Amino acid sequence: MKAVEYIKKAKPERLVFTDVEKPVPKDDEVLFRIHAVSVNAADYRSMKMGLIPARKIFGADVSGVVESAGRSVTLFKPGDEVAGDLAGCGFGGFAEFAAAPEKALVAKPAGISFEEAAAMPMASVTSLQALRDKGKISKGQEVLVLGSSGGVGTFTVQLAKHFGAIVTAVCSTRNMEQARLLGAHRVIDYTKEDFSTGSSKYDLIVAVNGNYSLLKCRKALKPDGRYVMVGGALSQVFRAMILGKPLSMGRRKMLFLAAKPNTDDLKYIMHLASDGIIRPVIERYYSPEKTPDAMRYAGEGHVQGKVVIKWYPEGVITRDATV
């Protein structure tokens, strides 16, 4: 099969579109043809840190059609349309086929495209776990989303609104209209305004990146407020983990989320998407041969929503997509 394989000597990108052996599913696994896969920070940051999957194929968020199933598989059969997050089982999504445990996959709703399904798993589940599990979000709360324009940020704005919160989104000038369209009640352009200098206080702050001072964020919380950091560079994550505990003394809580794949959460997300309550924002589509370009663009940190690689059918044309 064709795949995008990590080859250390193949500089500068180290990602090579080549032929590799097709995986054989174990008894509890399904083999599925990948139709679409999206790029996540887990892909390009893992590669940068030298954390290479065993099969040397990145790609976690996938969608496709089951080709065959292991003898103990009960949830899926050939022809079923599926989606999932493969980060917990070795990645492997930058390829024509992947084998994964059935417990890592969910059924793709008929009304959602393969591209939309592939854009959702990791980003949307991270957002859900940040708001619901760490943030303890409730109706009527004031929620601030720092970094509202990327994959996690766009889902966080939509989910916070769905949960009945009053949402303030922080983003750059070019992303302000997108934030409004996704449901933000107020949008702050960080190039013109510092959210922490105003009088507004928040019940919950979700920081999708680590570019903001923890002390400033704590100051912007209400007395019982919560701050949840869900992403950022490794140094920013370590700083949040180290300083979070002493800064959480008292009623304000400074927390860090290490999101984990969860099929129950993903089923819930797919249900919301099927009902039209939330939707993924996809800025660009790439062909498999252009995967290094997709990784590089995503790694620059300015994607509006997600970038998606179309694997099947072949012959797709790279294009930009509006919100």
Describe the structure.
The protein has 323 residues and is α/β, with parallel strands linked by helices. 27% of the residues lie in helices and 27% in strands. The protein has 9 helices and 16 strands. Strands 3, 4, 5, 6, 7, 14, 15 and 16 form an 8-stranded mixed β-sheet that branches. A 6-stranded parallel β-sheet has the order 10-9-8-11-12-13. A two-stranded antiparallel sheet has the order 1-2. A hairpin with an 8-residue loop joins strand 1 and strand 2 (15-19). Helix 1 (41-48) crosses helix 9. The chain is globular. It starts with a strand and ends with a strand. Residues 314-323 have low confidence and may be disordered.
Record keyword descriptors for this entry.
27% helix; six-stranded parallel beta sheet; 27% strand; 323 residues; alpha/beta; single chain; 9 helices
Largest sheet: 8 strands, mixed
Percentage beta strand: 25-35%
**H-E string:** EEEHEEEEHHEHEHEEHEHEHEHEE
| Count of helical regions | 9
Oligomer: single chain
Instruction: Write down the Rg.
Output: 20 Å
Uncertain stretches of 5 or more adjacent residues:
314-323
Helix content: 25-40%
Overall mean pLDDT: 92
Whole-Å distance between the termini?
Answer: 33 Å
The global form is globular
Would you tell me the structural class of the helices and strands? alpha/beta
Total DSSP E strands:
16
